[in-house]
Amino acid sequence: MWVVKIGGSLYDSPQLEAWLRVIAAGEHPVILVPGGGPFADQVRVAQQRWQFDDATAHSMALCAMDQYGLLMSGIEERLQTAADPQQLKQIVADGHSAVWLPAAADPDVEPSWRVTADSLALWLAAKVGAEGVLLVKSAPLTTAGSDLLDAAFDEFQRQWGGKVRLAHRDGSSDWPALSGYAFG
Q1: With bands split at pLDDT 50, 70 and 90, how would you rate the model's confidence at 180?
Q2: Distance CA 92, CA 124 (A)
Q3: Burial classification of residue 159, based on how many CB atoms lie within 10 Å of its CB (0-12 exposed, 13-18 middle, 19 or more buried)
Q4: 159, 124 in Cβ contact below 8 A?
Q5: At what angle do helices 117-128 and 153-160 cross, to 10 degrees?
Q6: What is the pLDDT of residue 56?
Q7: 136: three-class secondary structure by DSSP
Q8: Angle CA 126–129–135, to nearest 5
Q9: Cα–Cα distances in Å, from 176 out to 23, 127, 134, 166?
Q10: How far apart are the first and last CA of the chain?
Q11: In this predicted model, what pLDDT tens digit does every residue of 84-132 receive, in sequence order?
Q12: What does R_g of the chain's alpha carbons equal in angstroms?
């Protein structure tokens, strides 16, 4: 089983629907981790305006991920949603792809902007025993490290130790299973 994180940057991209369609129709079900997209951007704006602490912002950002995840399942109705890692595993075992709603799961991670959906995908992969994580990005895959992944990513990768692959939203990837798919 793989965990696939769909970046919030795909929110206003026509490729979002293509990715969701391909994942929902795929013969190998996956667990989707939604980024935060414009929903998380609004949390950043609110925190700057009201100066509340990072723990509050973290909780709000998890809710932002839920909103993006609900949007995904609204666009592609074959995707099922769940918060609990065991429920997600069961959905995949039943032959369906799932979307993780992390706010109710409340991952036990550092409540700061150092930890974004990228690191949370690794956290979830460890919880569900995933073989690997695919991160779908809008940024060029050649972007320098700190611009492409969050500040805590390396720590989470060392703790989990599984395979990590990157894909651009247009379908170019270092993940062979994507070859032959059209994301335009």
Answers
A1: very low
A2: 14
A3: exposed
A4: no
A5: 10
A6: 97
A7: strand
A8: 65
A9: 15, 25, 11, 11
A10: 26
A11: 999 999 999 999 999 999 998 888 899 999 999 999 999 999 999 999 9
A12: 15
> What token pair was written down for 52?
């509340």
When the pLDDT of each residue in the chain is averaged and rounded to a whole number, the result is 91
Q: Which of 129, 116, 126 lies closest to 157 in space, CA to CA?
A: 126
Tokens of 184: 């335009």
How far apart are the C-alpha atoms of 44 and 168, rounded to whole Å?
A: 25
pLDDT in tens, 30-60: 999 999 999 999 999 999 999 999 999 999 9
Instruction: Give residue 35's region: left, alpha or beta (phi > 0; psi -120 to 50).
Output: beta
